[in-house]
Amino acid sequence: MTFLERYHNVGDDFLSQVVTGDETWVAYESKQQSMEWRHSDSPKQNKRRGKLSKGIVLLHDNARPHVANRTKDLITSFKWETLDHPPYSPDLAPSDYHLFLHLKKHLGGQRLQDDDEVKTVVMQWLTSQAADFYEEGIQKLVQRYDKCLNIGGNYVEK
Known about the structure:
One of its GO terms (molecular function) is nucleic acid binding. Helix content is about 45%, strand content about 5%. It is built from seven helices and three strands, in the order ααββααβααα. A three-stranded parallel sheet has the order 1-2-3, with no helix packed on it. Helix 5 packs across helix 7.
């Protein structure tokens, strides 16, 4: 069953099962410096155990790491479902069209000096957002998915 079919059958409860993720770059103001927010030597993120298990529906694009056999096997072992993602439609990720858009507006014009300051500012912003901010991004997914499929899987809008 497709994303839209599931949504029309189950409604907003279906959206509460959708898990998605992505990454973005946060560059320092200096033209000479360009650093990724999370470096490979950064400590691993503390994970919430037991929260994401039953009934998870994973939405991610078709990037190679996401469709690799090892990744597919891991997702299967978690008993998670994956939603079909139209090819060449990266603008279906709520983090891209909602979360990162607002985060980058917040960061615009700020001069951040180092990695720790970037982490602090980003984490403060993320935790200061009300739950309805995140819900709004997920709610937009329905109309974006519909629009994307109606135009043959092309980019929706930025």
